[in-house]
Fold:
Amino acid sequence: MEVKESTLALSKARKKLKKEQQELLKKRFFSNYSLMIGLVILSILVLLSVVGPFLIGYSPYEMTVNNRLQAPGANHLLGTDNFGRDLLSRIIHGSRSSLGVGVSIALITSVVGLTIGLYSSYYKRLDNILMRICDGLMAIPGILLAIALMAALGPKVENVIIALSIVFTPSVARIVRSAAIVVREQTFIEAMKSQGASSSRIIWLHIAPNVLSPLIVQATFIFADSIIIEAALSFLGAGIPAPAPSWGNILYDGKLVIFNAWWMTVFPGVMIILAVIGLNSLGDGLRDIMDPHYKKIKRKRTRKSEKERAV
Structure:
């Protein structure tokens, strides 16, 4: 009877603790202004890219030469481009391309970088080979490596994803490896080895879950960087080929008429800025929630800088 009562009491205590933890997590989530701003901006952009094309009466490919370089007005809210195409329609359809490329690159680099980082941290011989390859790729500036890969592969959406995945994977692998090495030295990993657990079981069931926090945060920053570099490649003519719309190649078309049609560079530029601000804010917010230690360090640095200014 006493054992049953103690079991019930323990079960109630666990449920209460779990509920309190969930409430604390909700409070931290909604009180994080950076995270909320990032979520709102990103949600608006995603909603715009999904619903927007069905609400606009113009096709992004429909050319009306008589209406070329028309200023923003009632018929065309954001004006038209140098081929008479509706700019609002092209920007909204372009958000599908730019955001789709960013999501694809973030997912691919996360999976490949996670795999490379985990096996590098666990096997020392493999670590020397994989990390030297990563060091070699990271030694080349990202935009230059992306341009070289696109020159070799050719201007296609798929090739943009492949090229930028190669550019960003080494940095993800490095971050995962650093976090995994710390986890590998923990006592519970040694206990699993002594019990005869296989290397794959230890890597994927015990080390991998403990490195997901920095990986998720890094993925949001890679998402933002991918949008910027994809826009840069398209602006240089090496990214998503015309006539498919993307924010980058809309800017590429706008640079030729920048003094006569300011709207062709301003509006897609604003969309890129909003996307990057939203993703960086989301990444900062996730880092504060997933890594409270980082938040404490940031507060100490802020207080220290405030004291130095006061002096």
